[in-house]
Design brief:
This protein is mostly helical and 372 residues long. It contains 18 helices and no strands. It is globular. The N and C termini lie far apart (49 Å).
Length: 372
Amino acid sequence: MAGGGIVEGGGTRAHLYEGRTTSFVVIACIVAASGGLIFGYDIGISGGVTSMDDFLVKFFPVVERHKNQSTKDQDYCKYDNQKLTAFTSSLYLAGLVASFGASGVTRRFGRRPSILFGGFSFLIGAALNAAAVNLPMLILGRIMLGVGIGFGNQAVPLYLSEMAPAKLRGGLNIMFQFAINIGILAANLINYGTAKIKPWGWRLSLGLAAVPAALMFVGGLFLPETSNSLIERGHLEKGRALLVKVRGTTNVDAEFEDMVDASKKANEVKHPFRNILKKRNRPQLVMATFIPFFQQLTGINAIMFYAPVLFKTIGFGGDASLYSAVITGAVNALAIFVSIFAVDRLGRRILFLQAGVQMFISQKQRVCLSKR
């Protein structure tokens, strides 16, 4: 974010910022965070439906036959199927491609259009998945969900950060991650229930993604643009008026001036991608790239995505695998809930370091168990 980045990083007048957490901010953040809820739901729902026999019979009969055969093959090999891989991976591939286009839309036209388009894409994707009669229709629905993720994940965290008061920005930013984990937990609980509904329970699981999608889209119709975005696009008076409304005070001069200064400095950068590769920006580039990269390599996303299938391959029954996935999602959501209240008091670095220690210990224990 061109304007918000410098302001959030601690403008010289940050101690002069005034304002409170207005109901306007709370409602706006809840609606915007629904984008995280959808992302989490789509992560959690896939592993559950791919473990349901009715779903496999409809779209992946080869996998269903291998799954129920008594063979000497490893259990996870029974899910080795290119069509099933296309179903699961199409979401992320579409999200990756869409995120490039979403970046330009979010910057040039504002955060609100990206949120609206993301919510609309989610609605279309959920409808296609719930009504799917063949594999192409199912994958098309997944692609639309991926487009929604690309736009939603681009705009929603930025929107939350720019709407939040400076003193609460860390906690409200984590709300997006918290919403993702609530979505994962909700998906696991729903899968546990719909697995008992024969033969159309999987349609209910996939179709319920439309609920948070509708909240995101309809709510987006009433959301304002952020002050940062308005200032970046030259609407200074509108940006200041909105800032007064959002902060609940007329004394917003310090924060407004920092936003204007940040926007001017950002606009002075003619070649941002070339500039970020310069030596002086290398530490920030390395951290911004490798921290999320190594976080992904821990494997937690794969575990959350395939949890029911993974538990099945190590010998859990159908209900037990879904129930275990619910426990995993609940623990994850609880950890995020604690972080929301701790991040602005203890700081980002403390949470980052203790999380690294926890992951190191758990990975070491997993290695030791695998050697037994």
